[in-house]
TrEMBL record:
GO terms for biological process: regulation of cytokine production; regulation of leukocyte cell-cell adhesion; regulation of T cell activation; T cell receptor signaling pathway. PANTHER family: BG-LIKE ANTIGEN 1-RELATED (PTHR24100:SF149), BUTYROPHILIN (PTHR24100). This is Butyrophilin subfamily 1 member A1-like. Residues 31-128, 150-249 form the Ig-like domain.
Length: 284
């Protein structure tokens, strides 16, 4: 282990003389315990890496995966990762040296670096792997959303702890409506089972799903859309849900109508009151 560290550090020192740069994801990768992770690392310009030596390290000391000219070198691999790592051979040809790590454990947390040895050893910036508990809940940051007729609104909802919901089943329901307002499963929207009333008016922020954002966008709101909405998530036989209320105020026109109506009503009332008083005075 120590040997690896020394070799690595020595070679990192000569990195400037080599010719590759890396594209590694700058964001921490958040994975639920027990799931598989792909630690992204691409060579730039894309070079066939099949003939190279590729190594993945954690904290630059534990050897996670080692590949050398068409084969994996498992002898040197840290015990903890035995049988859980692989590199895609097809992807290696395209300079994609991403690591596939199966059944992530909490002890896998840490910062990972991918390194290639061609003219010298070069390592990419570190990728943070965070492992969260396999249980989850759903939360709504605000419980009441107000809108006017014709608006586009976002009903907020997110997974807690924040982690990817791409593989989960996400359903939005409206109180009193049996069919879901929105239904996402197997990585796509199931419009066929969706409530007719909401067809073509609802969507999730698909790129945000990987950040655990389950918010629903609703177009062209109607006063009849007012009510309670339930954001529900299920995955691996676990379920969680949260409720948010939508209030859609009437149209501008009806606002005016009610304004004038109340104006005339109060005018009428004060007039009758006035007459009544006049009548009282006269009769006295
Ligand atoms: C790189 O390879 C991984 C599998 O090892 C794959 O999931 C990923 O999509 C690939 N990335 C690109 C940009 O080709
Ligand atoms: C979800 O993403 C949308 C679109 O980017 C954003 O407007 C909204 O605030 C996000 N909601 C939450 C709960 O993070």
């Amino acid at each position: 282990m120590k040997m690896d560290l020394i070799i690595l550090l020595a070679l990192v020192g000569s990195a400037h003389s080599a010719s590759h740069t890396f594209k590694a994801s700058g964001f921490p990768l958040i994975v639920r315990e027990g799931e598989d992770a792909i630690l992204l690392c691409l060579l730039s310009p894309d070079t066939n890496a099949e003939e190279m030596e590729v190594r993945w390290y954690r904290e630059l000391e534990s050897l996670v995966h080692s590949y050398m000219i068409h084969r994996d070198v498992i002898e040197a691999q840290s015990e903890q990762y035995r049988g859980r790592t692989s590199l895609s051979r097809e992807e290696l040809k395209k300079g994609n040296v991403s690591l596939q790590l199966r059944e992530v454990r909490s002890s896998d947390e840490g910062s990972y670096s991918c390194c290639v040895l061609s003219t010298g050893m070069q390592c990419a910036a570190e990728i943070q792997l965070k492992v969260v508990d396999s249980s989850f809940s759903v939360e709504v940051p605000v419980t009441l959303v107000s809108a006017r007729v014709g608006d586009t609104v976002t009903l907020p909802c997110r997974l807690s702890p924040l982690s990817s919901a791409v593989l989960m089943e996400v359903r939005w329901f409206r109180e009193g409506v049996k069919a879901p307002v929105y239904f996402y499963t197997l990585q796509k929207a199931m419009t066929s089972v969706q409530s007719e009333e909401y067809r073509d008016r609802t969507r999730l922020f698909m790129e945000e799903l990987r950040n655990g954002n389950l918010s629903l966008q609703l177009d062209n709101t109607q006063t009849s859309d007012s009510g309670l909405y339930k954001c529900s998530v299920s995955y691996n036989l676990k379920e969680a849900e949260a409720v948010v209320e939508l209030k859609v105020a009437g149209e501008f026109l009806s606002f005016f109508l009610s304004f004038f109506l109340s104006f005339f009503l109060s005018f009428f009332l004060s007039f009758t009151l006035f007459c009544f008083r006049q009548f009282l005075c006269l009769s006295l």
